[in-house]
Design a protein that fits this description.
The protein is mainly alpha-helical and about 110 residues long. Helix content is about 40%, strand content about 5%. It contains 6 helices and 4 strands; from the N terminus they run H-E-H-H-E-H-E-E-H-H. The strands form 2 sheets. Strands 1-2 form a two-stranded parallel sheet. Strands 3-4 form a two-stranded antiparallel sheet. This is Methylated-DNA-protein-cysteine methyltransferase-like protein.
Length: about 110
């Protein structure tokens, strides 16, 4: 696993339940603002990483659940977020600005 991926996972593990962040916010916090796609690749790989990485808390810049296709095993990304109190309609977080967690501010 790359050092960049490890750093991504460390940040994602810090996102509190009921909050979300974006691929771009993580990339920016790591000093690689143009690496949003690489953060997405890390999230795709995160389902096999120990300790657990709460990848369901990472969405695109508009609050869209773009990573939902990578959740298998009966529990969807939407269900995981809803269980934490995040309101999702279709594939978009309704109260996105209220639940957005910015690692640049929080860390």
């Amino acid at each position: 696993m790359s050092d960049f991926y490890s750093q991504v996972y460390e940040i994602v593990r810090l996102i509190p339940p009921g909050r979300v962040t974006t691929y771009g916010a993580i990339a920016k916090a790591l000093g690689s603002g143009k690496s949003s796609r690489l953060v997405g690749y890390a999230m795709n790989n995160s389902h096999v990483i120990k300790p657990h990485v709460p990848a369901h808390r990472v969405v695109n810049r508009n609050g869209l659940l773009t990573g939902k296709h990578h959740f298998t095993g009966g529990i969807s990304m939407k269900d995981l977020l809803a269980a934490e109190g995040v309101v999702v309609d279709g594939d978009i977080i309704i109260n996105f600005q209220m639940v957005f967690w910015d690692p640049m501010i929080e860390l």
